[in-house]
Amino acid sequence: MEIDSVGEVMVARLQGEIDLKVSDALREALDGALERLPVRHLVFDFECVSFIDSTGLGVILGRYKKVAGAGGKFGVTGLHPPVRRVLELSGILRIAQEFNSPGEAVRMLGGGA
Amino acid sequence: MEIDSVGEVMVARLQGEIDLKVSDALREALDGALERLPVRHLVFDFECVSFIDSTGLGVILGRYKKVAGAGGKFGVTGLHPPVRRVLELSGILRIAQEFNSPGEAVRMLGGGA
Amino acid sequence: MLNRFRLEFLSRPENVGLARVTVAAFAAQVDPTLEELDDIKGAVSEAVANAIIHGYGNSPDGIVVVEGVLYGDAIEVSVEDSGKGIENVAQAMEPEFSTDPERLGLGFSFMHAFMDSISADSVPGRGTRVVMRKQFASRH
Amino acid sequence: MLNRFRLEFLSRPENVGLARVTVAAFAAQVDPTLEELDDIKGAVSEAVANAIIHGYGNSPDGIVVVEGVLYGDAIEVSVEDSGKGIENVAQAMEPEFSTDPERLGLGFSFMHAFMDSISADSVPGRGTRVVMRKQFASRH
Ligand SMILES: Nc1ncnc2c1ncn2[C@@H]1O[C@H](COP(=O)(O)OP(=O)(O)O)[C@@H](O)[C@H]1O
Ligand SMILES: Nc1ncnc2c1ncn2[C@@H]1O[C@H](COP(=O)(O)OP(=O)(O)O)[C@@H](O)[C@H]1O
Prior knowledge:
The complex is a heterotetramer, with two copies of chain A and two copies of chain C. Chain A is α/β, with parallel strands linked by helices. Chain A has five helices and five strands; from the N terminus they run E-E-H-E-H-E-H-H-E-H. Chain A has helices spanning 20-36, 54-68, 81-89, 92-95, 102-109; strands at 2-6, 9-18, 41-52, 74-77, 97-99. In chain A, strands 1-2-3-4-5 form a five-stranded mixed sheet, with helices on both faces. In chain C, 34% of the residues lie in helices and 29% in strands. In chain C, helix 2 packs antiparallel against helix 4 (107-114). Chain C is globular and about 40 Å long. In chain C, 47% of the residues are buried. Classes of the chains: A alpha/beta, C alpha+beta. The A-C interface holds A 17, 19-21, 23-24, 51, 53-55, 57-58, 61-62, 81-82, 85-86, 89-90 and C 13-14, 16-17, 20, 34-35, 38, 41-42, 45-46, 49, 52-53, 102-104, 106-107, 109-110, 113. Strand 1 of chain C pairs antiparallel with strand 1 (3-10) of chain D. One adenosine-5'-diphosphate is lined by residues 46, 50-51, 54-55, 81, 83-86, 92, 97-100, 103-108, 128 of chain D.
């Protein structure tokens, strides 16, 4: 995974198959970045994700909940069909805003800076 | 698999993983073509083959033996590393001529027609 | 019955993917659509993760058993553990019910959504067996 | 021991690929090179094809068992059938020896070439078990 931040927006570029095998490492990496970086909004780029299950979604939703209290917003981008399917099923697509690209997400959530 | 013939040369374009699952169908298709077509020389294009085991090699070598009696030649092309490996191990690379392309094989074996 | 297999493995996180790959390669023998294959992989992932996390409490030395049976137009997959079992299966299957506050409680809901039918047999203290079935759209 | 699995399946031609995929996904857990992975797939293919063709004489209802054990730097794979067995294992392992005139007699030679060690135990009338081991080049 790669994590970038632009202003108040953190973009996490996830990779591969996100399941129990990687969930602990993913949680730690995201929590570490959230502590280190002065960000409010969270964007997940799924472009390089071929599979995610409810264990993986739990990690992602859990990180969003951490920033939601402080008014943080939640963006997703790069949804291939199997990923879109479970984001829909889980209700995440009703909470998160979907963007056409990480760049768009940063512009829209970051307030056009 | 696709089978083409140009003059006396038959080119069989093999596909996928060549093992016990496909060996009977492969043998029948090749034998059928050898009966139907007035060819002498046999070229196997492995460009689209990702895997072949000794069962698959047996089918190929068996077809070559059918034409060898009548002076038929044996060409191979498009060898990816795992395929090259077993063609070497089996000794087929000492019997067959390797070409850079099916076109080259046809030109060389067909006598430049 | 066209074909069947049985796969046993240790309750380690990396084996969720092993189960997914094996079931997908098995199901692929009857030429399912990509979406059907994704559904089956998703359902297997949920059931195997549950066996490891809930059944064995993340201890890596339990045995998980995945079985698959292919019929002409359907697949049946079962996932079994000899772990702690489920006290109340009906409750466990409710959307968003989880005994782990860190989890979403959506595993069984996903299995329902991905497959045509699912049932779970469980004996507290002895283990759990989930059986799922999916019909393939006929394209022949 | 890092991990292990056991896969049982019917002696059908399409399951040679199933065994290959499962063993490859399992071996991939320790990040082998592509060539190491190809070797392992090749060896499994030979052993499983032998179980089906020779062990069970192509009857589709036998059970083939493939087991894998991962160590930090090596993999052990066994392939077992309860088929007709081998009268003379030493002879069977000779290059180009085959009891089937249509075959090359190179299965065991390939297994030897692909893996670091291979042994076969067989009881005529009861079955055959081939155990193969491969050391991974250390790249860490
Ligand atoms: N194999 C199992 N062994 C024991 N308990 C299980 C098993 N599978 C599911 N459960 C129980 O059922 C609950 C609901 O499961 P599920 O819908 O998959 O959600 P989650 O895994 O997110 O908790 C789990 O929280 C757990 O208490
Ligand atoms: N699982 C098995 N059960 C019975 N016989 C076997 C088995 N594996 C190998 N053999 C015997 O050993 C011989 C040599 O095997 P191998 O080197 O793989 O060549 P091939 O499969 O081409 O015959 C076979 O022809 C067969 O007689």
